[in-house]
Amino acid sequence: MANIKSAKKRILVTRTKAERNKAIRSKVKTAIKKVDAAIEAKDAEAAAIALKNAISVIDKAQSKGVFHKNTAARKISRLAIAVNKLA
């Protein structure tokens, strides 16, 4: 365990940020799974709605610094291509 006051604070802050990032990543994974489930069911309408939600969640994660902008763009692009194949 750290002895210096600033080091103790860094441990606490890092733990807090890690929990926040983990929750955000979990939301992104859930949103992507919902899109994939709609694609598996071949439900274009549900897939489009799930895609819109997933794009929003991914963009929020990117704006908070959880994902790099290119990673977010890649995830969105792959989902959009998969949904567009249904239509």
Number of E strands = 0
Oligomer: single chain
- DSSP summary: helix tally: 3
- Helical amount among residues, as a percent range? over 70%
Structure description:
By secondary structure, the chain is an all-alpha fold. It has three helices and no strands. Helix 2 (44-63) packs antiparallel against helix 3 (69-86). The protein is elongated. The protein starts with a helix and ends with a helix.
Task: Walk me through the topology.
Blueprint: H1 5-40, H2 44-63, H3 69-86
Helix pairs in contact: 1-2, 1-3, 2-3
Question: Which descriptors would you attach to this protein?
Answer:
87 residues, mainly alpha, elongated
What's this, in brief?
With 87 residues, this protein is mostly helical. It has three helices and no strands. The longest helix is centred in the N-terminal third of the chain and has 36 residues, at 5-40.
